[in-house]
Amino acid sequence: MKKIDITTRFKPDGSLIPLEFTIDKEPVRILDVGRQWDSDNGKHILVMDFQGQAYHLFFQFQDLSWYLVRDIKPPAEPS
């Protein structure tokens, strides 16, 4: 996991909506927020950027920090 800077919004129901995050000083704007689930130590959120790249983000309750768990590569185009 890699610690990241992120901009988020809280909805009235308390849910988190990631808007943008930074990987190696490059901003990644989020187009869509997908599945979310809680684990014992944080909240997992799947998101997609404007290029169709998916990411697994993690908000850790212990230190209130965000992490990139991994980027999820799209399937290879058939040749």
Explained architecture:
The protein is mostly beta strands and 79 residues long. The chain has strands spanning 2-10, 16-23, 26-39, 42-49, 54-60, 65-72. It has a 6-stranded antiparallel beta barrel with strand order 1-2-3-4-5-6. β4 (42-49) and β5 form a beta hairpin. The relative contact order is 0.22. The mean pLDDT is 89.
Produce a short descriptive summary.
Helices cover 0% and strands 68% of the residues. It has strands spanning 2-10, 16-23, 26-39, 42-49, 54-60, 65-72.
- Helix share of residues? under 10%
The largest sheet has its strands arranged as: 1-2-3-4-5-6
**What structural class should be given to the helix and strand makeup?**
mainly beta
User: What does the largest sheet look like?
Assistant: 6 strands, antiparallel, barrel
Features:
single chain; 79 residues; 6-stranded antiparallel barrel; mainly beta
Strand-helix topology:
Elements: E1 2-10, E2 16-23, E3 26-39, E4 42-49, E5 54-60, E6 65-72
Antiparallel strand pairs: 1-2, 1-6, 2-3, 3-4, 4-5, 5-6
